[in-house]
């Protein structure tokens, strides 16, 4: 008898197609799993999981490229820099250590981003022991050679070569910008705002705070403060103890070739000659509240960030000296506590 095909067997085309579709999905998933296992094996080290692969196929499997040098060591953008050339007066070492402490560890003054190096530039005269001490306390060390070949003042003192050697900070090209501080700068508050402050883009490569008017400067071993009430706009004579710098090897070489200035103040005179406000590369004035070059007790209430003087021997007001003494005490306490740990 002729039997009609049951509806189940009828070639409806629907169910077998669904099945085929499922197989396809499983095949694709399987292929994906296999491929990802192969690529994982390669990226996680061919040595550990040894796979035999035909050389013709090997070329088709992409391997991770070499790690770029930028990822290995990121270029630091900014640093605080100071300079130590002699410790015949041990107060200079104390003062350098104090600056490192204030910038890195002192809760009242540190750079809270903790992203900037504290660099100490050392001349060959400074011993390995001192270098090791500064490194232990957190500094990054830059050794430089004494810088020769610049014009000397008539009465040369023992430290003329050191003074010019300070110019090496213009060659610290592993940083985009550096804030140079003489090692006798005492912080009253963090200096971290300076990196984003007005003028910090440094069109000529140098910014700072004027200490006096050029027309009033005299060659003298005594430090003469500017007349009371002299306007900031008139202070076109930069104090080289506090400078925001964009290091540049070309600029550094150019500075080494500068001649024809009154050499009495050596590197500071050279800098003021080259970066003259009337010349081609005027230095940029930063907010004068970043540093007081002739500290007065009123600076403390007026919100200055730092005071620049040899607190252990310059004739500074008692209130100022007291702040220095307290900072030294905090530092000693800090390191005592650290040694006991
Ligand atoms: C200045 O820096 C460059 C690059 O780091 C270096 O090759 C050169 O010797 C430096 N110049 C001096 C005089 O130290």
From TrEMBL:
Bilayer-spanning residue ranges: 21-40
Keyword set includes Mitochondrion: no
Keywords in alphabetical order: Membrane, Transmembrane, Transmembrane helix
InterPro entries the record matches: Glyco_trans_8, GNT1/Glycosyltrans_8, Nucleotide-diphossugar_trans
Record flagged with keyword Lyase: no
Name this protein carries in UniProt: Glycosyltransferase family 8 protein
Upper classification of the organism: Eukaryota, Fungi, Dikarya, Basidiomycota, Agaricomycotina
Gene Ontology terms for molecular function: glycosyltransferase activity
PANTHER family per UniProt: GLYCOGENIN SUBFAMILY MEMBER
Gene3D superfamilies: Spore Coat Polysaccharide Biosynthesis Protein SpsA, Chain A (3.90.550.10)
């Amino acid at each position: 008898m002729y039997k009609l095909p049951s509806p189940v067997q009828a070639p409806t085309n629907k169910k077998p197609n669904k099945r085929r579709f499922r197989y396809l999905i499983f095949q694709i998933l399987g292929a994906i799993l296999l491929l990802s296992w192969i690529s994982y094996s390669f990226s996680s080290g061919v040595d550990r999981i040894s796979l035999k692969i035909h050389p013709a196929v090997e070329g088709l499997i992409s391997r991770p490229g070499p790690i770029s040098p930028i990822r290995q060591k990121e270029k630091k953008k900014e640093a605080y820099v100071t300079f130590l050339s002699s410790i015949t007066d041990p107060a200079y070492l104390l003062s350098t250590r104090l600056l490192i402490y204030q910038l890195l560890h002192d809760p009242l003054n540190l750079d809270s981003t903790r992203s900037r190096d504290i660099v100490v530039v050392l001349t060959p005269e400074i011993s390995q022991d001192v270098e090791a001490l500064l490194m232990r306390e957190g500094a990054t060390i830059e050794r430089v050679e004494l810088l020769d070949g610049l014009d000397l003042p008539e009465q040369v003192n023992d430290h003329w070569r050191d003074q010019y050697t300070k110019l090496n900070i213009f060659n610290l090209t592993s940083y985009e910008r550096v804030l140079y501080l003489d090692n006798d700068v005492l912080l009253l508050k963090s200096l971290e705002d300076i990196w984003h402050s007005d003028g910090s883009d440094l069109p000529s490569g140098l910014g700072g705070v004027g200490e006096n008017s050029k027309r009033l400067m005299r060659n003298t071993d005594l430090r003469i403060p500017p007349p009371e009430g002299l306007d900031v706009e008139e202070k076109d004579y930069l104090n080289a103890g506090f400078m925001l710098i964009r290091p540049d090897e070309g600029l550094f070489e150019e500075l080494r070739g500068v001649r024809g200035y009154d050499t009495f103040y050596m590197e500071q005179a050279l800098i003021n000659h080259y970066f003259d406000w009337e010349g081609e590369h005027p230095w940029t004035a930063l907010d004068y509240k970043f540093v007081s070059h002739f500290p007065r007790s009123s600076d403390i209430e007026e919100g200055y960030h730092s005071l620049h003087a040899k607190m252990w021997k310059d004739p500074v007001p008692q209130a100022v000296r007291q702040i220095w003494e307290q900072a030294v005490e905090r530092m000693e306490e800090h390191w005592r506590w650290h040694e006991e740990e």
